[in-house]
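Hi support team,

I've been running sequence recovery on a batch of backbones for a student project. Most finish fine, but this one hangs at about 90% for roughly twenty minutes before it completes. I'm not sure whether the input is malformed or the queue is just slow. I've pasted the C-alpha cells below so you can try to reproduce it. Let me know if you need the job ID as well.

Thanks,
M.K.
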C-alpha cells in the first residue's frame, strides 16, 4: 500500500476535526457569552528508519483529540523514509468580547472587559460569560441550568424575591441593603477547556484577581456570542472542499494500489 494514503487519511481526519470546531461555533452564534474555538495545525515530519514507517495494520489513524500525533508506527518495513503528516496540537478559545445587548431584565448581567462569572457545579467551580441568571426556590441566583452563581468569598448569592440593583463592581443592593457582591475572576486563555452548558473549566489555582482592572458588570445587558458568522461559513466551505479533496486522493491512491496488485498477480 502506498504510504501516501496514510498522509491523506490523516489530513482528512484533521480536516474533520476542524469541521467539528467550526460547526460548533456556528451552532452557538446566538448563545449568550459564547467564545468561538479555533484549532491550530502544523506539519509533523517523521524521522527516517524502520520505526517510523506505517503499515496497513497500524492504528495511528484513530484519534481521541487534537493533540494526537500519527506515531509510533509498528511492524516496520525495510524501505522506511521520512514523511510529513498534518498534526493538530491544540484547540484555543477566542476570548474577544462579544457585543453587549440591552435586555432590561435586572437579573441579566454582562461583564464588560476581562473576567468570568464563577459558577458552582457538582463537578466543582466552573466559569462563564453568560449572565442570563434566575432566582431559584431557595432565593439563590443561579444559571439557567440551576447552578449557583458565586459571590466574593465563594458563597452562593442569596437574593430572595426582592428587587436588586447591581453596580459596576458587582455589589448587589436591595431595598433592605447590600445582599452580596458578584465574583469576577481572570483566567489564562490557554488553560480554558469547554465542559458543556456554556461553561468553561480551568486548572485549580489559575484564577487571578481583577481588582483595579478596567471594566466590570453591567446590569440589564447580556454579552452576545463572538462568533463571526460570515467568516465561519467561509471557513466551513473551504474545509469541506479540502475534505473532499483528501477523499479523492485516498480513492486515487487506493485505485493505483489495486492496479499494481493486479499487475503483480498477472506477472507471477
Amino acid at each position: 500500500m502506498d504510504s501516501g494514503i496514510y498522509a491523506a487519511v490523516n489530513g482528512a481526519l484533521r480536516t474533520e476535526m476542524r469541521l467539528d470546531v467550526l460547526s460548533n461555533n456556528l451552532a452557538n452564534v446566538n448563545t449568550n457569552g459564547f467564545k468561538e474555538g479555533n484549532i491550530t495545525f502544523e506539519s509533523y515530519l517523521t524521522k527516517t528508519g524502520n520505526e517510523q514507517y506505517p503499515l496497513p495494520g497500524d492504528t495511528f489513524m484513530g484519534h481521541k483529540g487534537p493533540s494526537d500525533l500519527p506515531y509510533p508506527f509498528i511492524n516496520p518495513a525495510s524501505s522506511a523514509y521520512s514523511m510529513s503528516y498534518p498534526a493538530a496540537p491544540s484547540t484555543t478559545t477566542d476570548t474577544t468580547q462579544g457585543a453587549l445587548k440591552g435586555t432590561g431584565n435586572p437579573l441579566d448581567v454582562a461583564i464588560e472587559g476581562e473576567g468570568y462569572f464563577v459558577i458552582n457545579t457538582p463537578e466543582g467551580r466552573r466559569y462563564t460569560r453568560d449572565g442570563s441568571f434566575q432566582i431559584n426556590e431557595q432565593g439563590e441566583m443561579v444559571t439557567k441550568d440551576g447552578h449557583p452563581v458565586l459571590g466574593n468569598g465563594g458563597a452562593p448569592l442569596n437574593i430572595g424575591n426582592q428587587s436588586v440593583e447591581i453596580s459596576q463592581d458587582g455589589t448587589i443592593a436591595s431595598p433592605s441593603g447590600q445582599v452580596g457582591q458578584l465574583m469576577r475572576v481572570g483566567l489564562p486563555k490557554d488553560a480554558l477547556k469547554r465542559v458543556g452548558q456554556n461553561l468553561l473549566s480551568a486548572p485549580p489555582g489559575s484564577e487571578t484577581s481583577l481588582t483595579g482592572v478596567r471594566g466590570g458588570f453591567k446590569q440589564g445587558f447580556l454579552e452576545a456570542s463572538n462568533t463571526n458568522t460570515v467568516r465561519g461559513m467561509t471557513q466551513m466551505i473551504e474545509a469541506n472542499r479540502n475534505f473532499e479533496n483528501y477523499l479523492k486522493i485516498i480513492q486515487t491512491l487506493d485505485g493505483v494500489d489495486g492496479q499494481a496488485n493486479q499487475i503483480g498477480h498477472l506477472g507471477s
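--
Follow-up from support: It reproduced on our side and the slowdown came from queue contention, not your input. Residues 229-267 form the longest helix (39 residues). No action needed from you.
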